[in-house]
Amino acid sequence: MQVFESDLQKLRDHIKNVNKEIRLAADQSQHRNIELQRLENEQADRSRRSLSRFMYRTRDDFDRIHRLQVMRSEETERENNQRLLDSLSSYDYIKPLKQARQKRYPKSAEWIFGTDEFKRWVDGTTPGLLWCSGNMGSGKSIVCASVIDYLFTERSNPQSRIVFFFSRFDDSESMRADTILRAIARQLITIQDVSGHTKQALETIQRAPEDISPQLCRLLARLLSREGPPSWVIVDGLDECQREERQKLVKTLKSMFGDGVNAKMFIASRDHANSIFKGASVNLEEISMNCSVAQDGIARLVDQAVQKCLDAEELLVGDQTLINEIKNTLTKHADGMILWVTLIPRHLCSQPNNEKIREAISFKNLPKSLTEIFNRVLDRIISEEKDGIVQALLPWLVAAKQPLTLSQLEECCLVEIDYETKTVHLIHACVQQFFLAASNKPALSKFHIRIQDADRNIGEILVTYLNFNDFKTTLARVRPPLPPIAPDEIWQKALGNEWSWPRILRLSQRIHGHKRRAADIDRTIASCTRVPDPAVQETTILDHSFLAYASDHWLLHSVNFDQEHCQTWSLWKNMLMCGHELAASPVSEEHHQTIDKALVRWATCNKHSALLHIVAASTELIEQHHPALFDYVLRESDIKLLHCMLNTNKLGPAFNSLCCRAAGDGRLEIVKALFEAGVNINMPGFGNWRRSLPLGEAVALGQIKVIEYLLQQGADPDLPIGARQATSLELAAELGGLKGLETCNLLIDAGANLKNTEALMRSCARGHRETIKLLLSAGIDVNAVFPAPPWHLLCGLHDNDVYVYTETTALLEAFSAPEPKIDIIELLIGAGAKEGAQPSGRPGLSPTDIPLGLAAKEGLVEIMHYLLDNGARVNGLQNMVILLGIILRQQGILALTPLHFHGDLALDVTENTVS
Question: Is the dihedral of CA 458, 463, 466, 467 positive or negative?
Answer without folding.
Answer: negative
